[in-house]
Amino acid sequence: MPLADRIRPSELDEVVGQRHILAPGKPLYNIISRGKIPNMIFYGPSGVGKTTVANIIAKKTSMSLFRLNGTQASTSDIKDIVGNIGTLAGAGGILLFLDEIQYLNKKQQQTLLEYIENGDITLIASTTENPYFYVYSAILSRCTVFEFKQITAEDILPAVHRAFTLMGEEMNTKFTVEDGVAEHIAYGCGGDVRKAANTVELCCLSSENDLVTMETAKLLTQKSSMNYDRDGDRHYDILSGLQKSIRGSDENAALHYAARLLCAGDITSLCRRLLVIASEDVGLAYPMAVPIVKACVDSALQLGLPEARIPLGEAVVLLATAPKSNSAYLAINSAMQDVEDGKTGDIPRHLKNKHYDGEGAEVKGQHYLYPHDYPNHYVEQQYLPDVIKDRIYYEFGDNKLEQQAKSYRDMIKGKK
After folding, report:
1. Between the chain's N and C termini, which has fewer beta carbons within 10 Å?
2. Separation between Cα atoms, residue 58 and residue 65, nearest integer Å
3. Distance between CA atoms of 26 and 102, rounded to whole angstroms?
4. How many C-beta atoms lie closer than 10 Å to residue 46's C-beta?
C-alpha cells in the first residue's frame, strides 16, 4: 500500500485543508457528524481529500460500503451492486462510493438513478471535472455538490512531517531531514497531498545514511508544480486566469499563469490564447499588438522550450501593459448575431457584381458611386441591406487610436 494510503486520516479533524466545508459548524462537517448521509458529489482536483472524506463517512454509518471507479466500471458492475439491495449484505443500506463518475456514460448513470431516487442506494461520487458539465442532470438534481479546493502548501506541511515520521517508524530508523526539504515538497506537489506523500516515500527509500538532502528532494519532486490536465477544467482555469489578468492589465499575474503553462510544457495553448487576446482585448487600441504577438509566437514555436519562454514572456507583458479595446470583438459578434437570426436581406443592387439588365428590370444600370472619385475619397450611399440599413455594430472605443479614427470619420462625413 502506498504511503499516501497508509497515512490517510481516519477522522475529520485530521483532514488537511477544506476548512470551508469541514471545519466544525460547516455544512459537510455537520452532515457527517449527524450520520444522516444524503447523496453527494465531491468535486475538485486530485489529492485534496475526496476519497479520504468518503472513507470517513463510510466508517461512521451502518451502511455497507461498495466502491466503483468510473474508468473501469461496467453496467454489469453496477447491477451487481444493485443486486445486494434487500439482502443480508445490504441490510443496513448501501453506500456506493463512485470515483471519477464523469467516465460513466449516460446509460450507466441512468441505471443508478432509480435506486438513488428511492433511497435504496446512497451515492457519494467524486469527480475532477465540473459536475454540471459531465454528470447526468437527473442524478445531479438529486445530489448535493461539495467543491474541494486545492490545498495550500501550509496545510500540506503537517502531512509531510507526518509522512517522514511514519516512514521512520516503519523502517525502524530516524531520518535526518535537511532544512527546507519538507517545505520544498509541500510547495512542489501543487496542492496534491498524495503526490507529496509519494515524494516523501521516495526520498526515504533513496536516502543514504538516513539523510534526506535537498538535492534528493529536488530530484524526486515531480516537475509539474500543479494539477494540470490538458483537456480538463484545470487547463481552462489557467488559460482563463491568464486572459483575465491580461485584460485587467496585471502583468505579474499574467506572467504567473503563463509560467504554469510553460512549466507544464504546454506552449501550444499559451500561443493560441495570446493570439486571441491580441485581437479580443487589446484590439484597435493598439493594432500593432497582433503582428508583434504573432512574431513572438512564431519565434517561440521555432525555438522550443526552454528558450520559448523569452518571446512568450515578452508577448504577455506587452499585452498586459497595452491599452485595451474590445470594440471590434463586440462589433463582429453583433454582426454575426444578426446573420444567425436571419437579419440579412438582399445586397443593394449598386453593390453587386455587374449584372445584365433584362427587359423586366425596374431599375437599369449599376448606379454605384466610386468613392475615389469624390473629395476625401468618400461619398454618401447605402451599403447595408434595406432591412438593416440603419444598423450600427461598431462603436468607437475611448482610446487614443480609435478616437483619432473617429475624428477622421467625422471629418470626411462633414460632421463636427
Report:
1. C
2. 6
3. 27
4. 19
Long-range CB pairs of 161-167 (<8 Å, 24+ gap) are: 162/7, 163/3, 163/7, 163/196, 163/197, 163/200, 163/201, 164/200, 164/204, 164/212, 166/3, 166/6, 166/7, 167/3, 167/200, 167/201, 167/204
Reported pTM: 0.61
DSSP string covering 308-332, please? THHHHHHHHHHHHHS----HHHHHH
Beta strands in 199-282 (DSSP E): 211-212
Query: What is d(CA 370, CA 163) in angstroms, rounded to the nearest whole number?
Result: 80
Quick: pLDDT tens for 25-84. 999 999 888 878 899 999 988 888 898 898 888 888 878 888 898 888 888 888 888 888
d(CA 92, CA 119): 12
Contacts of 136 (CB under 8 A, 6+ apart): 106, 109, 110, 113
Pairing of strands 64-69, 40-43: unpaired
Q: Please compute Rg for the chain using Cα positions.
A: 31
What grid cell was written down for 33?
A: 457528524
Give the neighbor-by-neighbor strand order of the sheet with 64-69. Answer: 64-69, 94-99, 121-127, 40-43, 144-147
Task: Answer yes or no: are the C-beta atoms of 130 and 43 closer than 8 Å.
Answer: yes
| pLDDT tens for each residue of 113-165 | 888 888 888 999 999 888 888 888 888 888 999 999 888 888 889 889 999 99
Q: Amino acid identity, residue 299?
A: S
Q: CA-CA distances (angstroms) from residue 152 to 28, 40, 45, 137, 160?
A: 20, 24, 13, 32, 13
Contact between residue 378 and residue 411 where contact means Cβ atoms under 8 Å apart? no
What is the C-alpha to C-alpha distance for residues 36 and 149, in angstroms, rounded to an integer? 24
Contact 408, 401 (CB under 8 A): no
**Any residues with CB less than 8 A from the CB of 389 and at least 6 apart, and which?**
382
Query: Cell numbers 487614443 correspond to what residue?
Result: 400
d(CA 225, CA 185): 10
